[in-house]
Write a structure and sequence with these properties.
The chain is α/β, with parallel strands linked by helices and about 300 residues long. The chain is built from eleven helices and eight strands. The protein has helices at about 60-70, 85-95, 110-120, 140-150, 165-175, 200-210, 220-225, 235-240, 265, 270-275, 275-290; strands spanning about 30-35, 75, 100-105, 125-130, 160, 180-185, 215-220, 245-250. The longest helix is centred in the C-terminal third of the chain and has 16 residues, at about 275-290. Mean pLDDT is about 95; it is low at about 300-305.
Length: about 300
């Protein structure tokens, strides 16, 4: 492996007592819809050439973080680190019980019995890594999407797209015809430096009102790069304004490879992106409950007032 191919070094985890708490009253049933978990390497081997070194993102730390930020639920998303070996995620779901749901990565020949077992454990979606498939002809990508949709539709699952913005743009007409729910990660990942335009983003927004599209308000640092969170604020506000009933929020914890990031600071960006508490209720609680089949907890959390 050359220096240019060397994996990114995962940074130390941010101490929990330095995580900024929510600066608004968290709604009952709040859900972080995008976290990853990692286990010891002797139990869960990684793929042959991972993009980063093993993060210290274990379930115990995750549960403590969710408690600090007053989340009742969270969704564990399969990282590329493990490829289609979902054992770490499934074990974490078993540990969390009904508090968590999962989004797995699978091969197209996974037996139906395994899909049903995943469902019983709390899996509700399949992640499609289109960064990995970005060099394929578009016809092959479309065929892959169709295969995955056909596999998961009988279970009522959704597709989750982890894709560069230019592929999202080129798939908009295809996505508009999908007959199952689908989620696009990281606000669509439409980077100006990749040639994406305001018109492309407007077409993406139209999917939220004309198709079964959900957009995830997650990982603003992946879009902003070094420019600061304000650089993506207009994008986030536009998503919320267009379809508050189809927007969900995810932290992208443990923020690979920058695990020192403040998850609470990211959560509090919602004060700017969605200043209306009723809209935050939709984004953080109502929408994830519908998409992931979550149960409403009996009591509301406390938290800071406006």
């Amino acid at each position: 492996m050359t220096d240019s191919q060397a994996p990114l070094v995962s940074q130390p985890m941010r101490p929990l007592d330095t995580v900024e708490p929510a600066r608004f009253a968290m709604p009952k049933g709040a859900c972080d819809t995008h976290v990853h978990v990692f286990g010891p390497s002797d139990r869960y081997p990684c793929v042959a050439h991972p993009h980063y070194t093993l993060p210290d993102g274990n379930p115990d730390h995750l549960h403590a973080l969710m408690d600090r930020l007053a989340f009742d639920h969270w969704v564990i998303v399969q990282p590329s680190f493990y490829g289609t070996d979902n054992r770490c995620l499934l074990d974490a779901l078993a540990m969390a019980g009904d508090a968590a749901r999962g989004v797995v990565m699978i091969e197209s020949d996974l037996p139906q019995a395994e899909l049903e077992r995943y469902h019983r454990l709390g899996v509700r979606g399949v992640r499609l890594d289109l960064f990995k498939r970005a060099s394929l002809p578009m016809a092959e990508i479309r065929a892959y999407i169709d295969r995955m949709a056909a596999m998961v539709a009988p279970l009522g699952w959704h597709l989750q797209f982890y894709a560069p913005g230019w592929i999202v743009r080129d798939l908009i007409d295809v996505l508009a015809t999908l007959e199952i729910d689908f989620v696009i990660d990281h606000m669509g990942y439409m980077l100006e430096e990749d040639g994406l335009t305001a018109t492309d983003f407007d077409r993406l927004l139209s999917l939220m009102t004309q198709a079964r599209c959900w957009l995830k308000l997650s990982a603003p640092y992946r879009l902003a790069k070094k420019r600061g969170y304000e650089a993506v604020a207009d994008v986030a506000r536009a998503i919320v304004r267009t379809a508050p009933d189809r927007a969900i929020w995810g932290s992208d914890w443990p923020h690979i490879p920058e695990s020192g990031r403040d998850t609470g600071e990211l959560l509090n960006l919602l004060l700017d992106w969605a200043p209306d508490p009723a809209v935050r209720q939709q984004i953080l609680a109502d929408n994830p409950r519908r998409l992931f089949g979550l149960h409403q907890p009996a009591a509301a959390h406390g938290g800071a007032c406006e």
